[in-house]
Design brief:
The complex is a heterodimer of chains A (622) and B (127). Chain A is 52% helix and 20% strand. Chain A has 622 residues and is of the alpha+beta class. A 5-stranded parallel β-sheet of chain B has the order 2-1-3-4-5, with helices on both faces. Helix content of chain B is 44%, strand content 19%. Chain B is globular, with a radius of gyration of 13 Å. The chains are: A alpha+beta (622), B alpha/beta (127).
Amino acid sequence: MRRAALQPVIIGAIASALVITIFYFFLTEDINKEIVSVEKNKGNLAGSMARQAGQHVQTAIAALEVAADMPQMQSTEYSDLISEENKGVPVNVDMEKRNVQKAVLLAVPSLESIGFLMPNGDVYSVEPSILQQNLPVVNFAYRDYYIEVINRQNTYVSAAFQSTATYNYTTVIAVPVFKDGSLAGLLVGALNLGVINEQLRMLDLDENEVAVIVDGDWNEIASSDRPVGDTTPRRSFSYLQDIMGDTAMSARIDASGKDTYITRAPVDLGSNRWSVLLIQPYSDAFSDVYLHQSEALSIIAITVGIMSVSGYILFRSMLGNVRLTDKLEDVNEELKTLNQNLKGDKARLESLSSELKSKNEHLEYLAKELDLKATQLKEMDAAKEEFAAMITHELKTPLVPIVGYTELLVDGTLGELTPVQKEKIQLMHDSAVSLSGLISDLLDIRKLEMGKMKFDVLETPVKDIVGQAVGSFLPLAKSKQIALTYTAAPDGGGSDLMLSCDPKRIQQVLNNLISNSLKFVSEKTGVVQVTARRNSNSVEFAVKDNGIGIPEEKQARLFSKFYQVDTSLRREVGGSGLGLAISKGIVEAHGGKIWFESTPRVGSTFYFSIPMVNNAVGGAEA
Amino acid sequence: MKKILVVDDNKNVADLAEIILTSAGYVCTKTNNGKSCLDAVRASYQNDDGYDLILLDVAMPGFSGVDVLNALKQEGSLERVNVAFFTASSATSLDIADYEKMGARGCLRKPFTKAELLNFVGKHTSG
């Protein structure tokens, strides 16, 4: 059923295709014919111009060649017409030659001047004679026309040049004069090409069409768009020479973005070849063709339109399928939109991807930089290590005799001193010892910060650690009448409480805390209690005093380096301000923690706890 | 009387140790470099008059305390003489434990007080 309904449609389509093809065939044929005819017309016009220009030059050549054949010109009896003495003034006039020259000037008005050169190139006579009056003795053997004529032994037409006096384009025609087969001189005429210019201007050209005559070098000789007396420099058309070569008679070119049609006709002047060029916008040249073409195309379009509409109506009435088509169109539209959206998404994803890529590259670059920096830092670190070792050694070595001899002086080993001397030497001794301590402290804090402090871990009885730490301060406490006591509770079952740690370093922590307490309690009434006990899986140490306490606002920074609660106390009580920072470092390296409780004017208690197992002592590299 | 050999390139340090040790009743000999230390130790064996303790500075130019210790170890002398270091360099990569592993009896840190030196020497010469 459907198949049967389609048949008329197919027949209609075939028929219209046939009609269009026939139309198009005839149209193409017609257009081609018209194009050929336009080309022919242009070629004819250019050709006729070429002939006119050629005639203009040929007339002059003919006149000069006739003159060259005259016996007067061939006479080799030269008078000294121009000499150094009478230059410019014709004294002994060679009237015979002059008369011939004058006659030629009369016959060919566009010849501006005629000269006679002797075979060696010397100027012999010039007409009109006014031109000769200021002419010195000259030799024109260097001129191109002289050289060309000698070489060719024949007439030569020079390239055109613009006269500096008249602005007219001029060409030189040089004709050899022979007598009995040997050169007797050269007849040289300057031909004014202004006349050609006039003729070009009078041409019946289209709007925007320009006619130009160019010489053998494709330089402008005359042009229809050049007004009389125009002095602008002549134009070069050598770019056309590149396109058209010597033979092409027409060309369609792109001249500065303009679709341009060029027609060319050659002007043969024997030795020289000029060209007449018609230059016109392509659409102008073929405007009639385009007009006809578009008319024909409109007819085809209308025909096709009518046939399509009628075909469509036929199709629609037969199949009644309009809604389906509409729906399909809707779907198609939707798909189109979807597709565009997808395209947009894709573009966004692509840009995101390239962004990520560049970010990634940047990150890689940064990583490399970081690696480099890390290597540099390691190197610097090693250098610092060496430097620190050296500095410590060099600082401490001179302290050895100071500490030693001051002590020997005070204790009388080296002889008795007066009490004042003894007191001052003791001061020196204490200062040297504290300086040495400071150097050690600085070194310790540095090692702790770099994770390079070494710990010699031993399973040690806690009471030994506490006992030794407190013991070293007992003489000082006694001298200040401070009650320094300690208790180390035994582990469950009465055995000694043992701790796996570096006992010397834990002792160092206790030393710092005890030393601080002793500094801040009052003499005679001061009480410092050191305790150690087990608290689940840790050993908790405490140093309790009834000293001045720590003001609340200072508590936060207590474990910072070089921090002292009361800077005015520094001189009085001494200390580097590193003790607590070092203590914190040592405790934390053992996996423990350090803290305190304090009430101003009542006292402070410093605690630290060290885990009994798994304490992460170490951190020592190499 | 116990005999102590003090080896230190710093004359002031060696002199100080000598004064303290002498005042405490020790017989003290000094050398200022590792080579002469070795010579002195070898000579003492020939005279059958060995030292009770050699107190050896670690950082000496040329032939260091560690070099001396190793040389003595190779000669088999370490079983007959106690060697202990004293050093101002607490930043050296070897700590006391390392010195002890090498065969030294201990290490005294400089600067030392009279009591520290006498305690240290007393500890390593007893028994």
